[in-house]
Every structure is written in C-alpha cells, then in structure tokens.
Design brief:
Layout: H1 3-15, H2 26-36, H3 42-51, E1 54-56, E2 59-61, H4 77-86, E3 96-100, E4 106-109, E5 115-119, E6 124-129, H5 132-140
Antiparallel strand pairs: 1-2, 3-4, 4-5, 5-6
Length: 144
C-alpha cells in the first residue's frame, strides 16, 4: 500500500477514531489466511494488521475487528464471508468478503488480489478494482 493511501487513512482515523478498530497481530492475519484457504495480498494484510477493520468513506471494510461505529456482525471478514457463502451469493465461494455496498451486495477479494462485487439485483459479478488498495482509493476514499 502506498504511503499516500496510508496517510489519508491515518488522517481520517485520527480525526474520527471511532471509525477504526485498531491493530491486529500478524499471527491472527496468518490464521485468517488459513481459514480462507489462500494467501491474502500484502495491501489487505497491511490494512488488517494496522487498522483491524474500519469504516472508510461510506463503507465498512472487514478485517478481524470491528470499530465502535461498525456493527457487531462486522468484526470478522471470515464470518461475513461464511454468511454470504451460506446464502449462495455468486462469486463468494472464491472470495474473502471485505466490504458491502449500501444495498447489501458484497465486495470480495479473490486469491489474485482483485476486488469484485456480487450484485444480487442485477444478477452479475463485476470486477471493481485490480487491487484492494485500488478499491479503497476509488470506492471508499474517492481519490481517483
């Protein structure tokens, strides 16, 4: 993740600490990878280790902790992923669900680090970013 993106996130969380959960030990992130069944990209692992989970822009971004402003059911990306898989949302069988849009459609991170959305109403799965950082910058932070 670039220093610019980290600086924007840290500035937002400094102004609004209720939006960020807090650091997570690397060993817990490694356990999450094991539960997911694939290696997570470095930008997502850094986000989770540094911030735990957070509200970025208007999106909850799931990791291994929920901030005070997030719902109790948003503390684990693994648990959120399992819920979407149980409901048989298209695409989620191959993803870690890392966020949702305001309509409840999941954003998922695949094993290549790309981010997709499963739009239930439209019945489509679409790539929204080539990287997790790209997702944060374009969808959440509206930087480019």
């Amino acid at each position: 993740m670039t220093n610019e993106t980290l600086a924007v996130l840290e500035a937002d969380f400094k102004k609004h600490p209720v939006l960020v959960a807090g650091p997570v030990p690397a060993r817990e992130v490694a356990a999450m990878e094991k539960a997911v069944g694939f290696s997570l990209p470095a930008d997502y692992k850094l986000f989770v280790e540094r911030f735990g989970g957070a509200i970025v822009g208007s999106y909850s971004v799931f990791g291994l902790r929920a901030s005070d402003a997030m719902g109790d059911d948003e503390s684990s990306a693994v648990a959120v992923t399992q819920r979407f898989r149980k409901q048989q949302w298209r695409g989620t069988e191959a993803w870690l669900v890392v966020s949702m849009d305001q309509a409840g459609n999941p954003f998922g991170l695949d094993q290549e680090g790309r981010v997709f959305i499963s739009d239930h109403d439209a019945g489509v799965v679409e790539k929204v970013a080539d990287t997790f950082e790209g997702f944060l910058r374009t969808r959440c932070l509206k930087l480019n």
